Amino acid sequence: MFQPIENTTIIKARDHYDRSKKAIDKDWIVLTLEEVKSLSGHTRFITRLGTVANAKVTSIKTWKTRPGNVDVHLKVGLYEYFIATYRDGRPVDEQLVREVANGL
Predict the structure, then answer these.
(1) How far apart are CA 100 and CA 91, in angstroms?
(2) Cβ of 54: how many Cβ atoms within 10 Å?
(3) Which residue, 48, 54, 88, is CA-closest to 70?
(4) Are 53 and 86 in contact (CB under 8 A)?
(5) Is residue 51 within 8 Å of 97, Cβ to Cβ?
(6) What's the pLDDT band for 103 if we cut at 50, 70, 90?
(7) Three-state SS at 68
(8) Contact, 86 vs 96, CB < 8 A?
(9) pLDDT tens digits, residue range 16-63?
(10) Counting C-beta atoms within 10 Å of the first and last residue's C-beta, which end of the chain has fewer, N or C?
């Protein structure tokens, strides 16, 4: 199998867009603070239902005086917007994730 990188959190969750009758849970890695700061384009996040959905990154706000704090502004669908907040390097509400590859 694969060897996870140190200090990573692996979550099992179902893909939000998998509508098959036999949908399986996949492994997802929670993004680190460095990965969050370098986001662009699209990302994935854990919804309140426990599934993984797509979101477009609209902006990332950082502070010089508080390097562990980051706000990632995201757009989901046509009309929904929300902010994924990281304080002291940890996610507060929403967790941004990436899919586990075979070699990580």
Answers:
(1) 19
(2) 14
(3) 88
(4) no
(5) no
(6) very low
(7) coil
(8) no
(9) 777 777 778 888 888 888 989 999 899 988 888 888 889 999 999 999
(10) N
CA distance 90 to 29: 14
**Plot region of 50 (φ>0 → left; ψ -120 to 50 → alpha; else → beta):** left
User: Residue 33 and residue 88: Cα distance in Å, rounded?
Assistant: 9
Give the pLDDT of residue 52.
86
d(CA 80, CA 94): 14
DSSP tag of 65: S
Closest CA to 47 of 84, 81, 94: 94
Length of the chain: 104
| Residue of higher predicted confidence among 6 and 40 | 40
